[in-house]
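Q: Now give one record:
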Amino acid sequence: MPLGGQSMDRLVEAAGDARVVLLGEASHGTSEFYATRAELSKRLILEKGFSIIAVEGDWPSAQEVNRFVKGRGPIRSAEDMLTDSFRRWPTWMWANREVGRFAEWLKAENEKRAESRQVGFYGIDLYSLYESIDEVLGFLQENPAYGTDLELARKAFSCFEPYNRMPEHYALSTARFTDECISEVSDLLTSIRTREKQFDGDEEQDLDLKMNALVAKNAETYYRTIMLDDAGSWNIRDTHMTEAIGELLDYHGEEAKIIVWEHNTHIGDASETSMANDGMINVGQLIRERYGKDGTFAVGFGTYEGTVIAAENWGDLWERMTVPPAKLRTWEGQLQGAVGEDLVLLFNEENRGLFSEWTGHRAIGVVYNPEFEAYGNFVSSRVGRRYDAFIFFSQSTALDPY
């Protein structure tokens, strides 16, 4: 079906029956992926009662967006809010005009709603080790009644302090000393979870405290593993993001429904890809197992050719790069050859088999070299089983960073 009104209507109807809708992207720098996810999310919010947006971003940074869209933060533009909030590389992932327009829409929509029905925006990643510990410590210092947890937070802060606020330094250290800060962050999270009903729920302070403690605990495990086991650290990260999704749903109640924005490699079921051969799991697989296939709806995205925002090396300034035409033997090449235009595919038990041949499926990260993409930017997949739907763009354009 061409990417038009009727096909999008059918996609919204199909996705709206799930409790968890996973919206992917084949890169972190393509405008059409972000804009289409935003439009789908708007319709799911308005027509199907979804009230949580969870993104592949840090919890503390995304909390600034959450406060903005709920009218709780300082009065400022979406651009100022996003550029102030997302300072960790790669900043363009969330500090861009596509996200800014969606944040402005959410803010305007929430102004029409009672507080209990407002739509939230949350980060479910775990890279904010130091920032999350800072958040926990700051909250507890401002609320001295929670003295036991304050002492635990101070111990955790002191444990990580020698590493100059650089998680990679902690990772290098734990390659030799593997039990450095485990008990500190584990004890902190356990104590907060045990006593969470005592914390103030005003403006979601209780949720904020618990989620930052969860990030600290799981980030410690992630950085302790990353130097020793690539697949293991990947699994820790995706297990954390799945746990965060569960925490958000539990916090907002049995009727809550969530939309997740992440890369295809996270939301497309890993058991239907070559990732499984390396012992890797992901959010899409774990969410299907936890909420069932009927309770989960995963939408993959792809492009045949165009432009993208990425960097040549980790930490470099972003560039606007050319995405070369996909080879004919790949999933994107086959779609271009067969249809040659934008389209939406819906998969069900009757037609999944037609789209389940193993084939290379494009995946562009924040680090990208178009000259060598054939050697590392395609994941062998059974697309019809990896996703419940797929959105294809024949031509795509680069994201618009602030």
About this structure: The first strand starts at residue 20 and ends at 23. The longest helix spans residues 230-252. The chain has a mean pLDDT of 92.
